[in-house]
Write the structure tokens for this entry.
Amino acid sequence: MTTPPTRLAFLPAASEAAQAAARALRARYGEVPPEQAEVLVALGGDGAMLETQHRFLGRNIPVYGMNCGSVGFLMNDYRPDGLPERVAAAQATVLHPLRMEVAAADGRRHTALAINEVSLLRETRQAAKIRILVDGRERLPELICDGVLVSTPAGSTAYNLSAHGPIIPLGANLLALTPISAFRPRRWRGALLPADARVRFEVLEPEKRPVAAVADYVEVREVLSVDVREDREVSLTMLFDPDHGLSERIIAEQFTV
């Protein structure tokens, strides 16, 4: 974006800090309805960014986030001065979400998109048993675990990192396949897969060991199988200040002690 935008929409989280920031920015810069905006300004933490992206998924309106929350990995610093000029100078990062397709035990099929990750999680005290196939080839006949997830590069510093998965630079064209508290095989730490890989999870003993599947905000319980792939037909754009690009943040996070 070469010229400062004149049509901004401010989308705050529910917190008082985000709501107060939105009131101040609206008074200073004016506002248009989100559907008419050149840029959406998300105010809050990373949850506000994800909620905004999901709300407008498929329209690919650029989103510039400012941190008014506790976690702001996907957000720029909050500074009210010179906002249109900051947005004009921001670097664009184009991402593609994961598409989750689920076959549930009740016979229904469900589809959802995930910007961060698709995760399978045990529903009861019984550990889950899951077969993993990649591009139609069985790679792990039985994983006994609390769960397993597939993460995008943008989501690799979220739940994936907490599960001891790898941090992935944005330009790597990779997905992280990461177990959650693996019991057997105990030493399996997951895998890095090409971005165009198609991952299939098949739940073993689903009546005894029920499993839920989650794509960001969408949860489906008692699943039989879950297919995950990157959806290249859907794009979303995040804007970052030049000194706070997402690629740089991902690299810097790997050196945090």
The two ends are 36 Å apart (CA to CA).
